[in-house]
Design brief:
With 310 residues, this protein is mainly alpha-helical. The chain has 12 helices and 2 strands; from the N terminus they run H-H-H-H-H-E-E-H-H-H-H-H-H-H.
Length: 310
């Protein structure tokens, strides 16, 4: 004989909550913005497609000897100007940090002058200093007429390099100030000299702050180098204008120059990315994957997925 025992409410299983039905928020503004942008891009593409542009001339002159010579000169003046800017900028930054009032004042005045005047004006100033100085006379070393000494290359190099040094001085000074003063005090307590402390302790830590804006300055220098056409230096823009004038495809050669500038800046941007990643090792516990590593991980994940390829 079985006896039914009523279960108390406490023994009954708790009621299961109903599953949550998440309804995504509709972002109509995103769709409208996407449609507007696509429409504008289509109109821009249609305008260039219907314009009187000889697009075949761009690949035809892509590797023209004059264009490549101008590109080589542009890269050369960019690299040399950045070397002058970085070296002199580090010296000026250290001078600004000095407790000697003379050196700190001179460094401040340098930064004030070269940052306060346009680089275009500075290029013309170097180019026309022959009106003031007929000769350059470094008595035991060199003496020559100013017009023979100040070539377009040297004028472009001084104009760009000295101007860049003012900006690099502030970038380096910001990087040096970002290092905790306790690092310097500890190094001095160990008997390290000021110069050795800068070289072994401060500068390696400051590089993490200095590298990103320096990479931007390199890219900016590549584009700013087009101003040297004012002092008759044969760069990429000058080459494109000469080829366009001789061949009758002026606009096409300007587009070609823009393409080469884009290619060069893209390569520099990739180098800047990996350089920043290198100097970020000491501050990040785990570095993010590079685009190539992310692509490889996605491909390997797709191939190893059950039922996938491979």
């Amino acid at each position: 004989m079985s006896v039914d025992v009523d279960k108390s409410p406490a023994d009954a299983p708790p009621p299961q909550p109903e599953p949550i039905k998440a309804i995504p928020v509709r972002h109509y503004g995103r769709w409208v913005a996407a449609i507007v942008v696509i429409g504008l891009v289509a109109l821009l593409g249609r305008a260039f497609a219907s314009g009187n542009v000889n697009w075949d001339a761009i690949p035809e002159y892509m590797f023209n000897a004059d264009i490549l010579k101008g590109l080589r000169n542009t890269l050369l003046i960019t690299v040399l100007s950045m070397i002058i800017g970085v070296v002199l900028g580090v010296i000026l930054a250290v001078m600004r940090q000095s407790k000697n009032p003379v050196t700190s004042t001179v460094a401040w005045f340098y930064v004030w002058f070269f940052r306060g005047t346009p680089v275009y004006v500075q290029l013309f100033l170097w180019f026309n200093l022959g009106l003031v100085f007929q000769y350059i006379d470094i008595m035991p070393i060199y003496k020559d007429e100013w017009s023979d000494f100040m070539t377009p290359f040297l004028c472009a190099l001084l104009g760009l390099g000295l101007n860049e040094a003012a900006y690099m001085a502030e970038i380096c000074r910001a990087g040096l100030n970002a290092v905790d003063e306790g690092q310097t005090e500890a190094a001095h307590a160990l008997g390290m000299s000021h110069a050795k402390t800068l070289r072994r302790i401060v500068v390696p830590q400051a590089m993490r702050v200095i590298v990103p804006p320096t990479g931007n300055e390199v890219i900016n220098m590549l584009k700013t180098s087009s101003l040297v056409i004012a002092v008759q230096y044969y760069d990429l823009l000058q080459a494109a204008q000469n080829v366009g004038r001789d061949s009758g495809v002026v606009v096409e050669m300007l587009i070609l120059a823009a393409v080469w500038y884009l290619i060069a800046t893209t390569v520099l941007s990739i180098g800047q990315y990996y350089l920043e990643r290198y100097y970020a090792r000491g501050s990040s516990r785990q570095l993010p994957l590079t685009p190539l590593q992310r692509a490889k991980s996605k491909l390997s994940g797709g191939f190893n997925r059950p039922g996938g390829m491979g």
